What does this fold into?
Amino acid sequence: METITNKLSKLIGEAFNKTGYVLNDCKVVKCVIEGYGDFQCNDAMQIAKQYKKAPFLIAEEVVKNIPSNNIIENCYVVKPGFINIVINNQFLCEYVSSYIENLDENVKDLTGVKKNIIVDYGGANVAKPLHIGHLRSAIIGESVKRICAYLGNKTLGDVHLGDWGLQMGMIISEIKLQKPDLVYFDDSYTGEYPSESPVTIEDLSVIYPTASSRAKSDENFMNEARKATFELQNGKRGYRELWKKFMEVSLVDLKKNYEALNVHFDLWLGESDANKYCWDMIEKLKKDGFAYESEGAYVVDVSNDQDKVEIPPFMLVKTDGSILYSTTDLATIILREKEYDVDKIIYLADNRQSLHFTQLFRCAQKTNLLTKNIELNFASFGTMNGKDGKPYKTRDGGVMKLSNLIDEVTQKALEKVKVARGQNLTDEEMLNISDVVALASLKFADLSNYRTKDYVFDLDKFCSFEGKTGPYILYTITRIKSLLKKCGEKNLDNFNCNVYSTAERDILIHLSQFDSYLMASYNDFAPSYLCDYVYNLANLFSAFYSQCNISKEQDETKQASWMKLSNYCLTILEKVLDLLAIKTLDKM
Ligand code: ARG
It folds into this structure.
């Protein structure tokens, strides 16, 4: 279905041409200032210089030549040359009705050629607990993935686990130190390895920090860890088997954590899965003259003359012979091309990784490793800060674990639900509701900030039932649901949606703009546009709801129209929350 702005752009574009002005790409946009119509075209100002004529005069001429149509109710010119357009009510109602009643199909028309997209998000590191640094990646990535898929692209989410770097060697060396008699460390052993893991997830949560601080103070240990990493990467049997065991244990825990966040990956691949492509890739890069030796390591130059800051060479092999984060990331692109025929990759990671991704993309593009032109995008994000403006920490100053954070938010949500809705709910309902409210609070607060911005963790604000928050949107949804229930079962098929007041008109105009917010979120990997959109929609609905006594309305046609409109709001609110991966409630 053609969008309303496209239809209008065509009409006004035709009028320009008919008047004798050549305009290749006439643009009509939503009017943002109240009282100046619903839409506007600013192109008269654009061409005024070229035609040496006052834009006001051009616009006046153009308006007279608009082809007859059923869309525009009124069109007028405002100085210096804006063409302001008021939409016909009947058209507006019919447009929105047919748009929303076939929403899913209509949305697919918004993009042309569909792509194979991989969204690389989550990025958890094996054997280290998830912390809030991984939270934004999971939350934004899940939404970006859903938006890509909703627009009809074949989309896969890949968690890209951190499972192949030096921290793996550290863990192996630490286990070796603590339990040297384990069969994994017996080089002469040729039998089968035990099916039980020698370590639990609780063990691992202690092993990694111990190993990491040991490596900082003990050079021998660090060298051991480097050697173990190299040997693991090159297939040492005992290490591979031990690694598999702690991978299994770690994965169970990670899956549980992501599940709790309503974040679901299609691919549970990691850096290690690219290992099989790494070594040939390195050989090829050496042979083709891209990779060269530098102080015992192998690197590829990725700087260029236009660089304003220095972009250092991209390292692929360390002096100890092991490969690293950058190597597996490069080889992962090869894997994704070969095994998934990917056209476009979207990486979600912290702003602070921007140098890495600049190097990675340049390296992939200059080295002819890929057979087609894959679009590589870095969707970076800022940090979640404490009130002191620094990355959020626990009360004792440590890095906050994700599971503790969620507990904290759930506690606050429960408090808020009790205060706001306590008298209407049983204890059990309250507990169930506060789980959903907690995640909605956290996710909406995160997503509603434009992704590159840092934001402050403020539980009171996030969990509030008023303002631009998750709970407010959830509450609006339950209000519409209970309103519709109160109005009783009614077959609305034989009724139309009409306009009786400006409150309804404002909603219809806003509903007609869903596509542009959705596309902004898609193009910019930024669900924040959709958050703005639903917040405005919830406000418009609240205004309409307080002006019109919908459930008590005696005029059947009027009541049916209002119910239809409420239903449209509900459809879009629920759709957007689904795209944000926020669960909704029937009652709260
Ligand atoms: N594991 C990384 C980290 O914790 C994030 C991975 C991001 N994705 C990627 N393909 N590099 O920082």
The pocket of arginine is lined by residues 120, 123, 125, 160, 162, 329, 347, 349 (CB under 6 Å). The longest helix spans residues 237-260.
